[in-house]
TrEMBL record:
Protein name listed in UniProt: Replication restart protein PriA
Binding residues annotated for Zn(2+) 1, in chain numbering: 431, 434, 471, 474
Organism: Dyella acidisoli
Protein's job: Initiates the restart of stalled replication forks, which reloads the replicative helicase on sites other than the origin of replication. Recognizes and binds to abandoned replication forks and remodels them to uncover a helicase loading site. Promotes assembly of the primosome at these replication forks.
Top enzyme class: isomerase
Amino acid sequence: MPLVLRIALPVPLPTLFDYLPSASGAASVGSRVLVPFGRNKAVGVVVEADVPAHVGNKQLKRVLRVLDDEPLLDAELMQTLGWAADYWLGAPGEAYANALPLLLREDKALPETQEPIWQLTIAGRSALDAGSRRGGSRALLQVLLAGPMSTTELDIALSDWRPAVRRLAEAGLIERAEPAPSANFSPAAATLALHSEQEAAIAAVTEAFSRFQAFLLDGVTGSGKTEVYLSLIERTLAQGKQALLLVPEIGLAPQTVRRLRDRLGVPVEVLHSNLAEGERARAWLRMRSGESKVVLGTRSAAFTPLPHAGLIIVDEEHDNAYKQQEGFRYHARDLALVRGRALQVPVLLGSATPSLESLANVEAGRYRALHLRSRPAATQPPQVQIIDMRAQRLEHGLSPALLHAVGDTVARGEQVLVFRNRRGYAPVLLCHSCGWHAECPRCEHPLTFHAAWRKLVCHHCDLQAPVPSTCPTCGSQELKPQGQGTERLEEALTAHFPQVPVLRIDRETTRRRDAFEQLLGNLADDAPTILVGTQMLAKGHDLPNLTLVAIVGVDEGLLSVDFRAGERLAQLVVQVAGRAGRARKPGRVLLQTHHPDHPLLRTLLAQGYATAAKELLVERKQTGLPPYGHQVLLRCEAHQRAAVDAFLSEACAALPDTNTLQIAGPMPAPMPLRAGRQRGQLLIEASNRRDLHAVVRPWSAHLAQLPSARKVRWSLDVDPIDL
Ligand code: ADP
Ligand code: ZN
Ligand code: ZN
């Protein structure tokens, strides 16, 4: 057998591909190569070199070109990626594709690692003095007056500055400056005197530097977790090592980046999906070369090379945004832990509301718990009260007690947050005469009524439809919006409190990249305001004058059949409540519900998240659900229900007959129809993870061979977070 290179190609096939080495040069493991693939070419990563081929000489093609003299992915990343593809049952090529920024997946030379730095020319200065430029161009000139700025810094300072750069560079008003690293970074800001719990947490993690240990830093919002991260990153830098800080959303990034830069006095790389591709690739490469020491990023930043790794931190570790929900379905927190072990560095998970998974790991002695119980920035924890909505006269879903409290708060000159996790005006448009309601034909799910757009929108498939003026079934004009979304609450609160500004913050009002920051930035003057918003408001950004949080419409979470719904609801309530009283003034939280006696709410309010989580864990243990049991979900969809049924029943029949597994299904998915496709699933559970993988691994390879697989789309999800 000839010796070949075994290569991961970015295709959703559960296999590596053998190629003969290129005539022109050797390729080592971790290098990228260009290969012929079908009628095209593809860029792949060498996973194994000089191994005997699986197939005969005749079928083998030759690598066209070796793109990297030195491996782009180091041994640790290669090992971790191999592990990840195996664990999450992903196509190996897709795992590698996730790890590399888009630009590095192309057949091109690596971009320079230095990002452009822009500065004013003499002509630029005169133009500014003469006032000859307007709008975006003028804003850019003005910003550069303070000194040269890198693209990353410009991103923070301005929105949408790229067209202006092009115009001004062509006009000779600005030019690229020679890179002067760290010239723009001010020295570290004076550090706070840490309190004793912070000291203890820092000491525990520092003691574990240079070996693997997982920690769970459990502390309410405002308890000083970020200060702990900052101190630990400082110490990591002092040892000449690199730190990776993961955050769940970019919404949290700008504020944290600023805090890191001010404090550490070194460049901080940022990696998230809203970044321009060039910047993303450069940041990745600067971490790989060791030129940069700190990276802050969202999910995919968990794949950043860390040749001088010192510390990995996962903030808000409970957040579901860490789980990728399509393609390669990895979990960034779990990947971070695997990397910590491979790199022999501590991994610090932080949260005010730890996931049940992490709490179970603490219980089992696998993670060490660190607690921050006091709250330096607040006088006292917010008081939480339940408002019983039963038998109340509601005004657009708002109870008199709630409206009263809102009125009192703004009258005192303070700010209010009304939290409702639903966009739009109303989740249902109902005919009062015959009971018809507007439904998405592609999902068989109610359409959300959006008043400002005058549209019905499906939140599952984005279908848009005009709002009918009469009922299509009975012709009645009595079409009534049912239930409340943020848009309706905004309208109701504006009508009720005409003298107070009402600010809505949800995906619609924050479409633009920095709109969220801007909207909240406008509140800096602390004027009395009513904020209405979704989950987006649950975190980030300190609002020191926000003293009342009103939570409405959480009952869906109490009644859901999803076994994780209780955990999510508890986390959400605590996170949202944490927004109140970050001020010196005491905060208050109102929770409006039709189920005031629900045991979860009772425990949560009377005894707090830790106790509620403990009770939820007991239930999970009794029922053998995660984290005590392990799950793999096979999802399937097709235009024809029969195709779904055929595939799932063949898949089910292909499972070995063993008593280590429990099998649920085949059954329809929770949404049996979505975007016009029939959906079904098969859930496989086991109390032992190894048993589960031992069966599912060969089975997943077999699934691709089933004749019925060609008529459906299917995917496997290991440790699914929504069933
Ligand atoms: P968390 O990340 O847990 O929400 P932060 O680290 O952001 O908490 O701290 C909340 C606020 O308290 C911040 O304004 C921070 O500067 C301040 N803070 C944190 N630790 C201390 C301390 N030891 N002394 C005084 N203020 C502190
Ligand atoms: Zn009707
Ligand atoms: Zn739909």
